[in-house]
Specification:
The strands form 5 sheets. Strands 4, 5, 6, 7, 8, 9, 10, 11 and 12 form a 9-stranded mixed β-sheet that branches. A two-stranded antiparallel ribbon has the order 1-17. By secondary structure, the chain is an alpha/beta fold. Helix 1 crosses helix 3. Strand 7, helix 9 and strand 8 form a beta-alpha-beta unit.
């Protein structure tokens, strides 16, 4: 028999179903509070810090925890779905939670209660909707966006015209492949600095590596860079490298490579005062290219031999590196002004020009990576709460802008899904549009008003407009990912028939 703390009880039947429903409703209540440009904020109590006033969906939903075990499990499952949307699209956390709520209600009331489907049949029905919805989103996507569209995405995602304009200027300067660091400053002003550097679309291999667990990032200064071309999975493989770094008096180290399993666990448990380590795993589809580019920029070597043969002289170096969950920027590489780097860029350009246009993306990505600018946005404010809120808004706008550049845009303000709901006769897709109207204190008659496809309501000017023409738009990838993840999580929730929950839920 297990220890008291690890004893679980089985929850089933009405108690389970009611608990899941309450959890879904609570996530919706928190998510919808800050949904839309005209919505409010959520104030979050912190045990050891000032309260956070947040308009950010990720922050609001991730902070939600409740005492009831079943409710908390349902909340956690929706959090995971929302996180998947955010991880893939950089935005859409709030929409994922709101759409999951409306779909859950539709499944329980319409599919199961009215149409008498079994829970398994209802789950299959829900999953069957996804391909046709995605097809409709693709048909409505404007793939090539202009400067006006980009500004609209920035302003809508930031929820503030001034911050949106700032992010628009930054993204216009650094482009799709440039990096953006958002940094707190002690002043009341928010400012921007552009520097040369390398931006990589890959972040920390594990959140345990962050030396700032509050902001979930690491900033490293004058740091050696280890570049590993072979996979390292065992602790005894990584130990010789760490011992040599420690002997060389390194205090911080940035490792690029595929470090996994026991080797990664070992590194994540090393005390920061001994050696502040960060591990970044480059994207699988560009792994070798990223390692070669980092080696060029830092004047390091890509090491592919036996770990025991590695030497600190093979390290590159950079003046600074900033690593978050999703991105890494390195500035002041030892090879930044080298002849080798300039020659490599020219060689890559010639390779690009020698292949067919549809095969040039790999080379264009490398050129962009090695020549892109890095923007440092220094966030100021009159209080810690104001600085945190500003940073969250800027982070959202940066992610939305890059996603829009990658995957195009669709009509915003809930209109894209609303129109697809009408077309496909899926009424739950229409409801996020009405949530936005309710949050803007729209007049009751607007909730019953007829509309043409593509037409919606400007939440700030209180006018009916064609959304695309009015430049009220959303990144298409965000809408697609929200659909995929909300449908997946609801199909799982409605087919849950038992929950195993801890009896003792007093966590330390």
């Amino acid at each position: 028999m297990g220890h008291q703390l690890y004893t679980r009880e089985i929850v089933e039947g009405d108690k389970l179903r009611e608990g899941i429903t309450r959890g879904v409703v609570k996530v919706f209540n928190v998510a919808s509070a800050a949904y839309g440009a005209a919505s409010g904020n959520v104030i979050i109590e912190n045990r050891a810090d000032a309260p956070t006033i947040s308009h950010d969906g990720v922050t609001n939903i991730n902070t939600l925890e409740v005492d009831d075990a079943v409710e908390d499990i349902a909340i956690s499952v929706i959090k995971q779905a929302s996180k998947r949307t955010n991880d893939t699209a950089g935005d859409g956390t709030t929409l994922s939670a709101i759409l999951a709520y409306h779909l859950y209600q539709y499944a329980e009331k319409t599919l199961i209660s009215e149409r008498k489907m079994t829970r398994s049949e209802a789950a299959r029905e829900i999953r069957s909707y996804v391909p046709s919805i995605l097809s409709s989103i693709n048909a409505r996507t404007k793939s090539k966006i202009d400067d006006r569209n980009l500004r609209g995405v920035c302003e809508i995602s930031a929820g503030d015209e001034g911050l949106g304009a700032l992010v628009y200027d930054v993204i216009s300067h650094v482009g799709e492949f440039g990096g953006v660091n958002v940094i707190y400053t002690g002043t009341s002003e928010t400012s921007v600095e552009f520097v040369d550097g390398v931006y990589i679309e890959a972040g920390a291999a594990d959140e345990m590596f962050f030396n700032d667990q509050t902001s979930k990032e690491s900033v490293l200064r004058e740091v050696p860079v280890v570049i590993l071309g072979a996979t390292i999975s065992r602790q005894d493989e990584i130990v010789p490298i760490i011992e040599k770094l420690h002997a060389s008096r390194a205090k911080q180290v940035l490792i690029f490579g595929n470090v996994i399993n026991d080797a990664l666990k070992f590194l994540s448990t090393l005390p920061k005062p001994m050696l502040d380590i960060m591990v970044v795993t480059p994207p699988a589809n560009a792994f070798s290219n990223v390692l070669e580019d980092v080696a060029l920029y830092t004047q390091g070597q890509v090491f592919r031999g036996e770990p025991k043969d590695w030497e600190p002289t093979m390290c590159g170096s950079v003046d600074s590196a900033t690593i978050t969950r999703k991105q890494t920027t390195i500035i002041g590489g030892k090879g930044a002004d080298s002849k080798e780097l300039k020659e490599a860029i020219e060689k890559i350009k010639k390779q690009r020009d020698s292949v067919a246009p549809n095969h040039r993306l790999e080379y264009e990505n490398r050129i962009a990576r090695l020549t892109a600018s890095i923007a440092n946005i220094y966030v100021g404010g009159n209080s810690d709460t104001e600085r945190k809120e500003t940073r969250l808004r800027i982070d959202d706008a940066v992610c939305a802008a890059k996603t829009a550049l990658t995957g195009g845009v669709v009509a915003g303000g809930g209109v894209c899904l609303r129109d697809i709901g009408d077309e496909r006769k899926l009424p739950y897709l229409r409801l996020p549009y009405y949530d936005l109207l309710i949050n803007s204190d729209a007049k009751p008659e607007l909730l019953k008003a007829k509309y043409n496809p593509g037409e919606g309501y400007n939440l700030l000017t209180h006018e009916s407009k064609n959304m695309i023409r009015a430049n009220i738009i959303d990144p298409a990838i965000v809408i697609r990912e929200a659909v995929i993840n909300s449908h997946s999580v609801v199909a799982q929730l409605i087919t849950t028939t038992r929950a195993l929950v801890f009896k003792d839920r007093v966590w330390e």
